[in-house]
Amino acid sequence: MTDSRSLADLAVAADDAARYANAIAQFTHSVPLDVADAYRVQALSFERRVARGEQQVGMKMGLTSKAKMAQVGVDEVIWGRLSDAMIVENLSEISLDAYVHPRIEPEVAVRIGTALSGDVSASQALAAVSGVAAAAEIIDSRFENFSFALADVVADNSSSSGFIVGEWCDPSLPLNHLAMTLECDGEVVEAGASDAILGDPLLSLVEASRMAAAAGFELQPGWIVMLGGATAAVPLAAGSTYRITVESLGEVSVRVAK
Ligand code: OOG
Ligand code: MG
Q1: Is 211 in the pocket of ligand 1 (CB under 6 A)?
Q2: 3-class DSSP state for residue 108?
Q3: What ranges in the chain are assigned the alpha helix state H?
Q4: Which burial class, exposed, middle or buried, applies to 160 when counting CB atoms under 10 A from its CB (0-12, 13-18, 19+)?
Q5: Is residue 155 classed as helix, strand or coil in its secondary structure?
Q6: What is the predicted pLDDT for the residue at 5?
């Protein structure tokens, strides 16, 4: 890490960019940031949200599908922190003013029933789940042109910005091989299947548990884990309505103000 910009400075820059919806230059263009330090920046930046009264309500997994990796040119699984301020109610209207250049993507979410952390099997991970749901993530890179290297996106809380969760379903429902679609104004713009998420969305929860332990925390009862997009993400446009469906789990939708 260079002396010219400390990790704390980068955390302020990432947090301010998200808070005020301003695009910033990629950190790695001016600073040799490694991934471990990038996760420290993420933690410091999230601490600023907590100091303003936000609460952590979960974890998001990112780049768990080839479609997403290809779209952003980074091919490592990453994670970020979710706060209560990022919750977008299902069927609500959002304004583009709160974002830099938001995109939406279809996901599967799980709700944690009993604390989970460390190396677990898929069946142990499933045993910790109290609900599963169709979900959508609104991602918003704070970096200009939505361009970043691995360390940049990690420092930027893995583009966490908003998330929408549908009705909770029984966790005994299979999560794999479910068709997933993203519609814009009634037209299908992305379609895929849940097995695009690491071969089985449950394996994304296994990864989340492992990565949480490596970072020194547990997935807490009541937390939501977003398991990652199954298709490429689509830019949100003013005046459009987006509907995400996950076969057998349900759907969510959001409207963007004109
Ligand atoms: C990084 C976050 C990726 C996912 O579901 O794969 C992500 C990005 O695409 O900006 O949320
Ligand atoms: Mg996502």
Answers
A1: no
A2: strand
A3: 7-20, 35-51, 66-72, 122-127, 150-155, 201-214
A4: buried
A5: helix
A6: 80
**What are the C-alpha distances in Å from 109 to residues 90, 95, 226, 251, 252?**
13, 23, 5, 12, 12
SS3 (DSSP) at 226: strand
Smallest-distance ligand from the CA of 103? 1
Torsions phi, psi for 30 (to 5 deg): -125, -10
| DSSP classification of residue 220 | P
Contact yes or no for 179/217 (Cβ under 8 A):
no
Residue 115 pLDDT? 98
Q: In what order do the strands lie in the sheet with 179-184?
A: 93-94, 250-256, 241-246, 179-184, 187-193
Question: Contact, 231 vs 70, CB < 8 A?
Answer: no
Q: Tell me the best of 60, 75, 158, 246 to mutate to test the pocket of ligand 1, counting ligand atoms within 8 Å of each CB and taking the most.
A: 158
Closest CA to 150 of 8, 23, 22, 28: 28
Angle between helical axes of 35-51 and 7-20 (0-180°, round to 10): 50
Separation CA 131–CA 173 (nearest Å):
9
**Which residue, 157, 173, 159, 158, is CA-closest to 108?**
173
Name the DSSP class of 18. Answer: H
**10-residue stretch averages of pLDDT, the chain, 258 residues long:** 77 98 97 96 98 98 96 96 98 98 98 98 98 98 97 98 98 97 98 97 98 98 98 98 98 98
Residue with CA closest to ligand 1 atom 8: 159
